[in-house]
């Protein structure tokens, strides 16, 4: 079913209420998601992006039964990642002559994914496609937001920015618009998306948004490729992105730990207590790396000015859940955050040094020398942990 957005623009994507893991199993989607595809009908008809392959048949049936499949004149591939290009093979099998508008990197990616030599039309920033009846698409390359091939498409005549992943959220909703969903869920999912996917590209996010704002384009809608369309208070998400891209921090610290026999957990809780004692107004969260969803945990890291990481020593190393969190933090390249390490041990005690090395590699400034504790902390040991927490918190602005 086509869902009307304006008289000349329709939604033809797929709402995926069931999705709970995305990017394979890498990203949790507690609220499902959607693969947004849009049909623009002027004198000519353009299809902007498609859907993920499991829904390709449904997508094609929808286009066919609505009678638009044969009327499509152009395919716009803003981004070749399979969640948006997964229906391309079926679409292009049905309409092999269709021109596919994408960036030069889009051609490489689509060829690499599907091994087909479709009728590619390479576009660059500023190139336009006239759809007639006052509708024109203007393309804006947005490399590394978040793949090399990514681009935005702006539709003059309707004043719509098709922003692909940017401004998106993994949020399933039968209503299409930002003002029709729970605002806490919406911004939490948008923030989680930014924290887990866009953080490494923050400088490019700032530049691209400022470049687009400098064009002073009239803007009625931002149509991303996941989640709801921004139609009300568009500046709220644009300003949020500018804020998140600027080494975002709240007055928050997080203690991330894992434990075997609760010694490191008891240390973690005492460290958190000490941090709160030093800075009573600061939010301090204590999160188990093995029990928390890693993407939710990374979202809390994103919001924090300090991350204190604890693991017992295990086989001369650290527990795998902590290794995984350190690897996530390294890859996301957070900036201007402080870190510190702690952990219990029984004999060799390598974990604290290993965590400190991981934090340094991830770009964290060490706020204090690490604290390691033999066996299970007694009351004196717990006081040392509180003092450690106080000393870390005292370094925070
Ligand atoms: Fe939603 Fe980068 O794909």
CATH architecture tag of the largest domain: 4-Layer Sandwich
Beta fraction of the residues?
Answer: 15-25%
Rg is 24 Å
Strand order of the largest sheet: 1-2-7-8-9-10-11
CATH fold annotation of the largest domain: Metallo-beta-lactamase, Chain A
The number of helical runs is 12
Which class best fits the helix and strand makeup?
A: alpha/beta
Distance between the termini: 53 Å
Instruction: Name the assembly state.
Output: single chain
The CATH class of the largest domain: Alpha Beta
Present as ligands are: MU-OXO-diiron
Helix content: 25-40%
What would CATH call the homologous superfamily of the largest domain? Answer: Ribonuclease Z/Hydroxyacylglutathione hydrolase-like
| Low-confidence sequence ranges | none
How many runs of DSSP E, i.e. beta strands?
A: 22
Shape category: elongated
Total domain units: 2
- Main sheet characteristics: 7 strands, mixed
- Return the average pLDDT rounded to an integer: 98
Topology, please?
Elements: E1 3-4, E2 9-11, E3 14-16, E4 21-22, E5 27-28, E6 33-35, E7 38-41, E8 45-48, H1 56-65, E9 74-76, H2 82-85, H3 88-94, E10 99-102, H4 104-114, E11 119-122, E12 128-132, E13 135-141, E14 151-156, E15 160-164, H5 183-198, H6 202-214, E16 221-224, H7 234-245, E17 252-257, H8 263-278, E18 283-288, H9 294-303, E19 306-310, H10 320-332, E20 338-345, H11 351-361, E21 365-366, E22 371-374, H12 379-394
Parallel strand pairs: 8-9, 9-10, 10-11, 15-16, 17-18, 17-19, 19-20, 20-21, 20-22
Antiparallel strand pairs: 1-2, 2-7, 3-6, 4-5, 7-8, 12-13, 13-14, 14-15
Helix pairs in contact: 5-7, 5-9, 6-7, 8-12, 10-11
This protein binds MU-OXO-diiron.
